[in-house]
Design a protein that fits this description.
The structure holds 2 protein chains of 2 kinds. Chain A is mainly α. Chain A has a domain of about 220 residues: MetI-like fold, CATH 1.10.3720. In chain A, about 75% of the residues lie in helices and about 0% in strands. Chain A is built from 25 helices and 4 strands. Chain A has a two-stranded antiparallel ribbon with strand order 1-2. In chain A, a hairpin with a 4-residue loop joins strand 3 and strand 4. Chain B is of the alpha/beta class. Chain B is about 35% helix and about 25% strand. Chain B has a 6-stranded mixed β-sheet with strand order 6-7-8-3-9-10, sandwiched between helices. A 4-stranded antiparallel β-sheet of chain B has the order 2-1-4-5, with helices on one face. In chain B, helix 3 packs across helix 4. Chain B is globular. The relative contact order of chain B is 0.18. The chains are: A mainly alpha, B alpha/beta. The interface between A and B is medium-sized, with 30 and 38 residues.
């Protein structure tokens, strides 16, 4: 950035210095994310490596028994890896058809009025805290499964998959819908003008054109499912076994995240078991990083692709190759299905598939379309019904618990009586601190990325850092907070440790939404200001930031909602189950609503009313915050026209 | 005009976009196996009228259409009419080339495929014939599997014409098909239009009066949603009946 300066005039030199200083501050903020990723990896590895003095890496990864507290401890995480993969696979089987179906329905079929209701509803589904999903799963879902399949317990692989599938839906739906909306309208017109039906247009032109975006959506949803902790702990039964036979959906199962959530709180710091848990965290982090990088890579290709048809030239492959690739994918999938399913089930599936193809050929085009549209509407209907059932159940059962005492008194008798006042206050403290910590850094980083840099290696590294931080499972933040803040910096289990851990977790969201808000301010506005002789920082502060405020605010509010609902990061860093007192200083541990609900639901019998009450308060708090953010975004989108 | 052998007749056609009255009492017939040009300044409704003829305006929100459009005697806006069938018989080429992100072959084969053709050799034959009819075959016959986006703009537009012909329509609607093309590509398309009228009815919307004068048999001049004048192309250009038409074609407004 060459500056025209007049040497000798003190004020210009001062101004240049000031510009340079401002720039450096924002650069530091942006680097922070990258440094955090580096520190997370460093501290996890540092705590994981001593394990390999006792256990070989191969034994650790492929050993089939996880029993670190047995008389002869054994540290094989193979069942945990298999458990994670199976639960995720099941979740995807549920979420992918429902999610893509709903996205197509929203993008192509739904009239504006339906869209106006369904889209915010699906965003709310994303806002429900995972511990509330877990609570619903534990109380309702596992019970349904127990009765439906007549088994002793419904806590199972199936329960975990259903719950994770529901949790992955919002991501899959919104990213797929964006991909479908970015398909040029001329494709649709071109196809319809040739006499194709709407369904033919959707299935042969629109969906194939949006395929890479839809793939990215599925991978992102998968990342969310793999990294989820609390809901999984609450419904999968947590037995570290590989289902026998492997297709036994009703077998209990245990995931990598679940292991961390359950055992980290009780392990002796520095023991082999402790190191093994960090080893688990490293494996988990590697899996999620791979998944998220894959999604990022695909998304980047789309962004390079669609814009204009000129660019499309480089993106498209020779169709012959595509056909081959499709064949290979088909064969691999078929083999996988055959491998996993027992023979009769596989045969049934094949017959069903062949039958569907035959029926498809027999039906008229109009009837195929009727059938397809019915299925698409059904998938959107199922998604909305799930939301309604979860919200309805918790509201109906929670309302009777809400009394003045419940909201203003500390708990008594292990939460069976009294109220949840300290938990409400603790959650507000935690969230407030996290925002105070993350907001300045996040906005600074976004300003640097959007206004001061166009590329280069350092920027690429910073962006990669932010993306990786965004894909890091919340339980890994919890572990990092524990080893770095609680142990290494000797903060102890405290409010401050929880605030920083939550702050780190929401940092990427704040950076991303702020950057998007800044980017939506047109370049001509900046040029106008610069052409009047304003400095870069003056331009940013007076012209670029003000119109971006609603966008930044939306991102902040979404982050507040996320921080308020998260359990895993504060599990080992800040939260205690019961204190009669409010925290007096940043060094005190606190109660928090999500943690309180988790403990009430999993370890305190006879507190049903309080469970529902706590779930309702948490839900209202978080969903309320999300609703404000959604309304705000809607409002600002309407108002500003460039 | 109505005494001619008209393949499409339009009676009392009115179209509103919300509050905006975009087409007013349009009465016109389009002659079989002839080229009819619709001219007029921007926003006069010529593209809107064109899009009424194969019901592409159905896709626009808030649109209200009254009156009749009869294709071979059938009102295409009658409730029992299958819009998909109408579009199959009345094809459309758009202002900007809009090939699908598929290969050249798949673009042309798309129409026959959606209409139920599965046999590979039939498809091959249709693709070749359509590309030949669109005067594109010699340029692409060695790279049918190449992506459609690898073609130049003019080639892409001829591909879109080939794609339309592959469905074997009766009528081809063209919405300013040359406005995104250079003069050489435009000349090729105009030559192609001349070829097409032996077998198809062509209705073309154009901004370019020379193009209308060169390529069409009949010309309609539209202004502010009304069809001001309609007649033989030489008559409209050499001895316009309406003063408005004369002022437009001599460039005194617009």
């Amino acid at each position: 950035m060459p500056e025209i300066t007049h040497p000798g005039t003190g004020s210009t030199r001062l101004r240049a210095l000031k510009e340079q200083g401002v720039r450096s501050v924002w650069f530091l903020a942006a680097s922070f994310a990258t440094l955090t990723v580096f520190f997370i990896l460093l501290f996890l590895l540092q705590d994981a490596l001593p394990l390999f003095a006792t256990v070989s890496p191969l034994e650790f990864l492929t050993g089939d028994t996880w029993n670190p507290t047995g008389a002869v401890p054994s540290y094989g995480i193979w069942p945990l890896i298999v458990g994670t993969l199976l639960v995720t696979l099941g979740a995807m089987v549920i979420a992918v058809p429902l999610g893509i179906g709903s996205a197509v329905c929203l993008a192509e079929l739904a009239p504006p009025r339906v869209k106006a209701v369904a889209k915010p509803a699906i965003e709310l589904l994303a806002g429900i805290p995972s511990v509330v999903y877990g609570f619903f799963g534990l109380i309702i879902l596992t019970d349904w499964l127990r009765v439906a399949f007549d088994v002793p317990s419904g806590e199972s692989w199936l329960a975990g998959s259903i719950l994770l599938g529901v949790m992955a839906l919002p991501t899959i739906i919104s990213v797929s819908e964006d991909a479908l909306n970015s398909v040029p309208a001329s494709y649709r017109e071109g196809s319809l003008a040739l006499g194709a039906t709407r369904w033919q247009t959707i299935s042969r032109v629109l969906v194939p054109s949006a395929l890479s975006g839809i793939t990215a959506a599925v991978i992102l949803g998968m990342g969310r499912a793999i990294g989820e902790t609390m809901a999984v702990i609450m419904v999968t039964g947590n037995a570290a076994i590989i289902p026998d036979p492997i297709t036994n959906l009703l077998s209990p199962i245990r995931t990598l995240t679940g292991t961390l959530g359950i055992e980290m709180g009780e392990v002796a710091v520095g023991s082999t078991h402790y190191h093994a848990l960090f080893g688990v965290a490293v494996v988990l982090l590697l899996i999620t990083l791979t998944v998220n990088l894959a999604a990022l890579w695909i998304m980047k290709r789309i962004r390079a692709g669609y814009g204009t048809e000129e660019q499309g030239r480089h993106r498209l492959r020779v169709p012959g190759l595509q056909r081959k690739a499709r064949l290979i994918v088909g064969i691999v999938l078929a083999l996988l299905v055959l491998l996993i399913l027992p023979l009769p089930a596989a045969a049934a599936l094949l017959v069903l598939g062949a039958g569907a193809v035959l029926v498809h050929r027999r039906l008229s085009r109009a009837n195929v379309q009727h059938l397809a549209f019915a299925l698409l509407w059904a998938s959107l209907g199922v998604v909305l019904a799930v939301l309604a059932v979860i919200l309805g159940y918790i509201v109906v059962n929670g309302l009777p618990a809400i009394t003045w005492e419940f909201l203003t008194q500390p708990p008594r008798d292990l939460g069976r009586a009294g109220g949840i006042f300290p938990a409400i206050v603790g959650t507000l403290y935690l969230v407030g601190g996290a925002i105070l910590f993350a907001l300045p850094i996040g906005i600074g980083a976004a300003v640097y990325l959007s206004e001061y840099t166009r590329g280069g290696r350092v920027t690429t590294a910073i962006r990669a850092g932010i993306d990786l931080l965004n894909g890091t499972p919340s339980i890994v933040f919890g572990l990092f907070g524990f080893t770095f803040l609680v142990i290494f910096l000797n903060f102890g289990v405290s409010l401050i440790a929880g605030m920083i851990t939550l702050g780190l977790m929401i940092l990427p969201t704040i950076i991303r939404t702020t950057e998007e808000a800044l980017k939506s301010v047109p370049a001509s506005v900046r040029e106008g200001s610069l052409a009047l002789g304003a400095t870069r920082w003056q331009t940013i502060r007076r012209v670029v930031l003000p119109p971006a405020v609603p966008g930044i605010l939306t991102g902040t509010i979404l982050s507040i909602g996320r921080a308020a609902g998260e359990t895993a990061p504060i599990l080992f860093t800040a939260a205690v189950f019961s204190t009669r007192f409010l925290p007096n200083s940043l060094d005190d541990p606190v109660m928090a609503l999500p943690y309180h609900l988790f403990i009430l639901a999993t370890t305190v019998p006879g507190a049903e009313t309080q469970q529902y009450g706590t779930a309702l308060v948490l839900l209202v708090l978080v969903v309320g915050i999300y609703a404000v953010a959604i309304a705000l975004r809607h409002h600002s989108q309407k108002k500003i026209h460039w | 005009m109505k005494e001619h052998d008209a393949i499409i007749t339009v009676n009392h056609l009115n179209l509103h976009y919300g509050e905006h009255h975009a087409l007013k009492e349009i009465e016109v017939g389009f002659a079989r196996h002839k080229v009819t040009a619709l001219i007029g300044p921007s926003g006069c409704g010529k593209s809107t009228l064109l899009r009424c003829l194969n019901r592409m305006n159905d896709l626009v929100e808030n649109v209200r259409i009254e009156g009749e459009v009869r294709f071979e005697g059938t009102d295409i806006y009658a409730p029992e009419v299958d819009v998909v069938e109408i579009r199959k018989q009345i094809g459309m080429v758009f202002q900007r080339p809009n090939p699908f992100p598929k290969s050249i072959y798949e673009n042309v084969a798309y129409g026959p495929r959606v209409h139920g053709v599965r046999d590979r050799s039939t498809l091959d034959a249709v693709v070749e014939k359509s590309l030949r009819d669109a005067a594109l075959w010699d340029e692409v016959k060695d790279r049918l599997d190449a992506p459609a986006f690898s073609l130049s703009g003019g080639q892409q537009q001829r591909l879109c014409i080939a794609r339309t012909l592959a469905v074997e329509p009766e009528v081809v609607l063209m919405d300013e098909p040359c406005s995104a093309l250079d003069p050489i590509a435009t000349a090729k398309i105009e030559a192609l239009i001349e070829e097409l009228k032996t077998r198809y009815t062509v209705i073309i919307v154009t901004h370019n009066m020379q193009q209308a004068a060169r390529a069409s048999d009949y010309t309609g001049f539209m202004y502010l949603g009304e069809l001001v004048e309609f007649g033989d192309t030489p008559q409209v250009f050499e001895a316009p009946r309406e003063e408005l038409t004369e002022r437009y074609i001599t460039g005194r407004f617009g």
